[in-house]
Amino acid sequence: MSEVKTLARLTLITKSIPGVGTFGELLSNGEVICKTVEREWLSNRKNKSCVPPGVYRVKPNHSPRFGEGFVLENPDLGVTVKGPSQRTHCLIHAANFPEEVEGCIAPGTEFHPARWGVLNSRIAFGRLMERFAGQEWELEIIRH
Q1: The overall pTM is greater than 0.85
Q2: Chain-centre distance of CA 1, in angstroms?
Q3: I want to staple 41 with a disulfide (CB 3.0 to 4.6 A). Which of 16, 27, 97, 143 is the partner?
Q4: Sequence-ordered list of residues with C-beta below 8 angstroms from that of 71, at least 6 positions apart, any chain
Q5: pLDDT, average across residues 2-12
């Protein structure tokens, strides 16, 4: 008899600021584990908009551009790994500012004090990689 494994579930609570970007906090059981940065909400336009709200399966992924990381998937929301769908390759990878992501999510240890973005993205991303090395998990994105 096989066991049903329960996936870890994290919550990303964000706020999109028109003309600037989307900024959030990634939580595990109510504890903030990192800050995040994305592009602003632009009606779910591919490579231009932040990831739409909803619940995603997050899978380990190898990107030719970013190396090892994570990819989000929820076919019901039009987000798949490779398509066909409205959005593909919605990744979690290291970056510090909204203009450095194209429809992806970048973690940071804290918000940048002098400009819209996050600090220490590689460190925060490394912590996520350690926490979920080779594992799938769930992510619920909530937009305010």
Answers
A1: yes
A2: 34
A3: 16
A4: 58, 59, 61, 63, 81, 89, 90, 91, 92
A5: 84
